[in-house]
Amino acid sequence: MSSTTGISRIDAPPVWRSATIANIRLVIICALVAALVRSFIVAPFVIPSESMLPNLLVGDYIYVTKWTYGYSHYSAGWGLLPKAGRIGGRDPERGEVLLFAGTGDPSITFVKRLIGLPGDRVQMRDGRVWLNGQVLPSERLKDLLIPITPYTSCLVVPGIIDLRDRMPDGRPACHYLRRRETLPNGRSYVVLDFATARSDNTEEFLVPVGHYFVLGDNRDNSMDSRFTVEETGAGMIPRENLIGPAAGVFLSVDGSTSLARPWTWWKGTRWDRSGSIDGRPEEIAGTLVEGLPDLH
Question: Which of 95, 164, 250, 255 could make an S-S bridge to 151, C-beta 3.0–4.6 Å?
């Protein structure tokens, strides 16, 4: 506007307008930084199934390091990289818990344990893993009672199997047989074995070049490399489909929480589950009890 002196000036914009523009810029910058971190550094995932019991429960929130195995079309996200090949990183090691894009449907993310490397021969015999002609050492442990919550279930097949039991305090629970399995590289982990299933005995699989063979820790409830993609299993995992290793649990809820009911947040959070996936106290998933008769 013009002043009485004839000198022109521009009025400063209102303070509220400047603050709004600054806030919008801050939100955009934060969103871009979060997207870059999720795509290239660390990403969160939630466990949706019981295939990795007892080491991962439904409702566990885990974080995955993206740089460990390098970057690919599926790990970087946004379709920034071509579908073939990877950039940087190291090869995965036996016993690591992997996240990968489904071979049949890449929009589905799987989480399984790596057992077989390219060129390995893997077979299941009577529920035991045979790797390159040698059975993996397997130690029977005390059984595990896992409390039944909205996020857990318990297998019941009338006249065949019934895993229902009770916790010492009377709460409904599911009763699992456990074993500690050890790979040739010395890495060990706990697996569940609760039934005699078709997947307990398989053909011998030869892992192709550039692929990996994975199993769920819950051996009788996991659609893994023992099953083909056509059977809705994982099949052999191409290296390009790897997203990264599961580095740990940062939050765990049992399904009884609700955002609309803040008073449920504390009780429904499993506070003792935060930390690494393997090597935690054995009681972290439930209560240990004397074992039932062995299945195999």
Answer: 255
